């Protein structure tokens, strides 16, 4: 099959982009609100990469372009083994793109779909590594705002190297804290970002006013899902998003001990603290989560 056919059949109507600059499109990997992601090959360096491309229908939307360029800026500042690295960014013709390392692996939503809840050590090691990546973002004045199982990938790192490496994906909602005041007008005040099941209560009001403790909550909800097989507030229990937002804001998070038996009391306390309604009651930084989970990660596989 030719590259043109590959792109046409798998790229959702972008047959006009068989190549972006020096990058040859190979196949479509996925798509989110801020763009489609393709597997590509650098034609000279022969390096496989992932390219995020702003949707064609948004090329005339200056707000989306500004947000996409903000993502380029945000990802490019981060260099950490638990965060997908950015290699290049730019514009080719009317196409805005971000070139990232290609991660060969599975995201956690797919892993949960295949195997169900994880062993305690495995779940805690995944969350511990994700916390280390978030600490790097925190130290660079960034908040992810959309931590969830599908944005955490386990990379295949080679036989005999255990546990697999966790990679944080999709910094499309990140906003540099130091530029919050200047950029607040780029998105309507009060707009909710993130995925409701993992979204911190305060994020339902205005995502632009949250800090790293919103990511602490989302990581807690993700760890909860890894252990219990469902999030603290699963969407299946609510018939409207508004009811779910109200539950997030007003109802206490059900302790994970009510949904999975036999967990160490100290681990239950860690998760309860991550899911505290008041941000002041949560861990103040992701590094504290990593430290707290280290004892439960022994033997992860």
Short note summarizing the structure:
33% of the residues lie in helices and 18% in strands.
Structure commentary:
The longest helix has 20 residues, at 120-139. The protein is of the alpha+beta class and 301 residues long. The protein has helices at 3-10, 62-76, 108-115, 120-139, 180-183, 212-228, 241-250, 265-274, 286-293; strands at residues 19-20, 23-32, 35-42, 48-53, 86-92, 95-101, 105-107, 142-143, 152-155, 165-168, 175-176. It is built from nine helices and eleven strands. The strands form three sheets. The chain has a six-stranded antiparallel sheet with strand order 1-2-3-4-6-5. A three-stranded antiparallel sheet has the order 7-9-10. It folds into two domains: 19-101, 2-Layer Sandwich (Phosphorylase Kinase, domain 1); 105-174 and 186-296, Transferase(Phosphotransferase), domain 1 (Orthogonal Bundle), CATH 1.10.510.10.
